[in-house]
Amino acid sequence: MRKLPVLLILVGLGLIGWVGYDYSSSGEEIARFELAGEAGSTDLISLEPSSNSMRALLSVTYEIELFVGSATAFDYSIKMTGPGGLTVFTAEGQQRDKRDDNTPEYATKTSEQVIKTFAVPAPGEYLLGWRIVPDKAKITSRTISLRRNVVPLRIPYLIAGVACFGLGVLLLIRKRRRSI
After folding, report:
1. In angstroms, rounded to a whole number, what is the distance separating the alpha carbons of residues 118 and 36?
2. Which residue in 27, 39, 130, 176 could disulfide with 147, CB within 3.0 to 4.6 Å?
């Protein structure tokens, strides 16, 4: 009977991991831009509505020195504009890092995050404008990639994964209380 909670936890973690991986890597990469400096814009890229749904991903590699608590590594702001100056999407955020007991004070990290899932409204030339400003980190590389024909987040599988994980943890806690 002790195997069931462990199995539920593993199934839950597997489902959660699969949904996350599928969400961030689905579709086909059609453009990758290596960014230099704190701000700028990419070359024009020709996009078609047949590529919908599309997803923009941001990858930033940085070095950070963490002492106690948390620190903001960098802030970002990204905007995609299309024909006639039409704004397709804007995204803003920041990467925060927290020092855990087991982590060194100085670390090299890579932050990979989905910026936005969006639809191309009309065929034409599109431009990505970006601003990535370091705060407590030294940024060593910045990349924005675009993927086409991506799948949406699979909410039912995510819920099932969280439920399996939660049930497994509850069963483990219940078993331990009974044995005490």
Report:
1. 25
2. 27
